[in-house]
Amino acid sequence: MPRRKRRFGSRIRNYVRGFLAFLFSNVGVVVLVVAYTIAGAFMFQAIEGASEMERVNNMSRERDNTAEYLWQNVTLTLNLFNETALKESISMELQHYQRKIVIAVRRGWDGGRSSKQWSFSSAFLYSLTVITTIGYGHLSPRTNWGKIITIFYALLGMPLFLLYLSNVGELLASWFKCIYALACLCRGCPGFSRRRVVQLRQQFEISDAESIERPPGWRSGYTDSDVTPEYRLPPRPPDYFQRRAYLRSVSMPQPYSPRPRPEVRGWSEPIHHDSPDTSEFSYVTFDAQAITVPISVCVAIMVGYLMFGSVIFGLWEKWDKLDGAYFCFISLSSIGFGDFVPGERVYTPRIETSFIVCSLYLLLGMALVAMCFNLMQEQVIHYYDGLKRALKRICRCKR
Q1: What sections of the protein cross the membrane (predicted)?
Q2: 89 Cβ partners below 8 Å, 6+ apart?
């Protein structure tokens, strides 16, 4: 029995560890954010929706009671020919009713008889704006429990969303680097031969001491065991001199000649690599994650995503292109003024396709902005390192 309990306990621990590892992976974080937002939508709809219907029913009852009071106690009791007393009584009752309306509006009543602000769509959008810190302000909790739950929901949701931005931003950045490397750093692009020579020079560059060669008939009076291991040079590859000759021939300017350049065995021209013997050195292998994406490309991606959102929201919400772009920028930058909000479709009881696309646009857009910031940061660091190297060389030249 103890062994079985231990095995069962170890299995449970392994399952829990695997589940936690999945939750904090890239896919798990996305699933966790979506599930957390959906759970918040159901929770706020249950809390605020019931209170909203209660406010609507109370105001309908107050309106009916006021109308009945004016008919029974004013119209039938007072003398209709006494205009002064009639107006005073009616104005006092209407002022009392107006105070009730003001109090109800402060508690969240919008003046409609059957309007339902806290539908699933609006509750989902509210939950999403809470954890993304957008906060449009068009919808807010009115009950005490709603305010308390919003505080704890934001305390747990905001770190979760920051984790989502970090993980998904890095994942998108790595994917985009690979796409950029395949699309813009191919061998047909300008500068391929130069990048190839630079990389090979870094791999096979040697010092002056290593370039001294022994004559073929030279014999040393010392054996290899007498040589200190610290000063023993590493073995060179068989085609070392061919590679070095190729680097010198490519890096040094060649005079114009109508005759074709003779090929060095084992090497081919940078673009042509038809021979199977030269396939080993006819391309450059590079790490895609070590490539930096230009800042202009990142800015173009963000501007294109804003224009795409302005077109979509312009069609659905009947906004012009400027208002759509303004809404997308305010939302993705988490400013959230609230002057433009996805309109009347949010408050319908059924789930609209435009609402789902709007939510996905915000989730993907903020991750895309995080990706662009990550790529631009790497590019700035790359420029800074290059500036440091240039300054060091200038200082050495002055000395």
Answers
A1: 20-47, 118-136, 148-166, 291-312, 324-342, 354-376
A2: 73, 74, 78
Neighbour tally for 292: CB within 10 Å: 16
Q: How does DSSP classify residue 8?
A: H
Q: Name residues whose C-beta falls within 8 Å of residue 166's C-beta, 6 or more positions apart in sequence.
A: 370
CA dihedral for 213, 215, 217, 220, sign (positive or negative): negative
Are the C-beta atoms of 119 and 52 separated by less than 8 Å? no
Query: Could you tell me where the DSSP H helices lie in 70-135?
Result: 83-106, 120-131
Tokens of 324: 């759509």
Alpha carbons 221 and 333: distance in angstroms, whole number: 75
Amino acid residing at 62: E
Selection from 199, 3, 79, 298 nearest residue 191 by Cα: 199
User: Which string of b and e fits 329-352 if b means at least 16 CB within 10 Å?
Assistant: ebbbeeebeeebbbeebbbeeeee
Q: Which two tokens mark 66?
A: 């006021």
Residue with tokens 């490539």, as numbered in its chain:
291
Q: At CB < 8 A and 24+ separation, what contacts does 173-176 make?
A: 173/371, 173/374, 173/375, 174/288, 174/289, 176/293, 176/371, 176/375
Which residues are CB-contacts of 326 (< 8 A; sequence separation ≥ 6)? 340
Sequence length of the chain is: 399
Radius of gyration of the chain (CA): 37
Q: Model's pTM, two decimal places? A: 0.67
* Per-residue model confidence as pLDDT tens digits over 47-74: 988 887 777 788 888 888 888 887 777 6
Q: Over the range 251-266, which residues count as b (16 or more CB within 10 Å of their CB) and which as e?
A: eeeeeeeeeeeeeeee
Instruction: Please count the other Cβ atoms lying within 10 Å of the Cβ belonging to residue 293.
Output: 22
* Distance (Å) of CA 101 to CA 105, 106, 357, 389: 6, 9, 37, 71
Question: Residue 152 pLDDT > 90, yes or no?
Answer: yes
Q: What is the pLDDT of residues 307-341, one digit of tens each?
A: 999 999 888 888 888 999 999 999 999 898 888 88
- Find the farthest-apart pair of alpha carbons in the chain and give their distance in angstroms, rounded: 140
- Grouping H, G, I as helix, E, B as strand and the rest as coil, residue 39 is helix
The DSSP 8-state label assigned to residue 208 in this structure reads T
Backbone angles phi, psi at 115, to 5 degrees: -75, 140
Q: Which of 57, 41, 54 is nearest to 142 (CA)?
A: 54
Q: Are 193 and 250 in contact (CB under 8 A)?
A: yes
